[in-house]
Design brief:
By secondary structure, the protein is of the alpha+beta class. Helices cover 29% and strands 31% of the residues. The chain has a nine-stranded mixed beta sheet with strand order 7-8-6-5-4-3-2-1-9, with helices on both faces. β7 and β8 form a beta hairpin. The longest helix is centred in the N-terminal third of the chain and has 16 residues. It is globular, with a radius of gyration of 20 Å. The chain starts with 14 loop residues before the first helix and ends with a strand. The N terminus and C terminus are likely disordered.
């Protein structure tokens, strides 16, 4: 690239455009973070994760209380990864794989979606493979994602919607400092099965104290 001639008034960026480009870059980086906890790394999914994702989300027990049917083919995984990365590029959601530091295994995924920048609000969701249940990973990953939402994305409120029969998720949300706020009757129908939705919320002003778990951030 040629350097501008002295006194020509030419430049690669004006001061104003440089500021705009830096702001755009920083904003994009916010939606592709790498978060680390004591045992986990949370980072954007890649195409090599497709097989592990399919193994997790084709399990009918994992998908029992979800509002979609179990995945059936590797294309379901590839589509999810593509759609997730596209939504993050559009700054509409944050979708991160949950990886074990000890082995590098993909244990599941966690998400902040339905992001409303103006209202400073988003919805949280997570799902783990059955072999990873009961180890406290949901709490560890969930708290890291919540802290990132409040502290880096500037959220004021994070919401969750679950099947009221899903006691495991209700318990996990309670440990994460969420309060049950309401019930939407007959909200979903999947494969002919109608279900209600229980609504939960957590505000930045009522978040619990961290559970002595270091959380680190880096760019992807």
């Amino acid at each position: 690239m040629k350097e501008p001639k002295e006194g020509s008034g030419e430049s690669r960026f004006s001061t104003g455009s440089l500021c705009v480009k830096m702001e755009e870059f920083m904003s994009e980086e916010l939606f592709f973070p790498v978060l680390e906890t004591v045992r986990l790394t949370l980072k954007p999914l890649v195409m090599d994760d497709a097989g592990s994702l399919l193994e997790i989300f084709s399990d009918s027990e994992v998908m029992r209380y979800w509002h979609t049917a179990p995945w059936e083919t590797i294309q379901d995984s590839l589509d999810f990864i593509n759609e997730s990365n596209g939504s993050m590029q559009d700054q509409e959601s944050l979708v991160l794989g949950v990886y074990l530091k000890s082995t590098g295994e993909l244990a599941g995924k966690c998400m902040l979606f339905s992001y409303d920048k103006e209202s400073k609000r988003a919805e949280i969701g997570f799902g783990l493979g059955r072999s990873f249940w009961g180890r406290g990973y949901i709490h560890e990953a969930g708290e890291a994602l919540i802290q990132y939402g409040f502290n880096s994305l500037g959220l004021r409120r994070i919401e969750a919607e679950i099947d009221p029969d899903n006691q495991s998720s209700a318990k996990a949300l309670g440990k994460l400092g969420f309060s049950r706020e309401g019930l939407l009757r007959q909200r979903w129908e999947v494969n002919g099965i109608v279900s209600d939705s229980a609504l939960y919320g957590r505000l930045v002003s009522d978040r619990p104290e961290p559970h002595n778990q270091a959380i680190h951030e880096a760019s992807a």
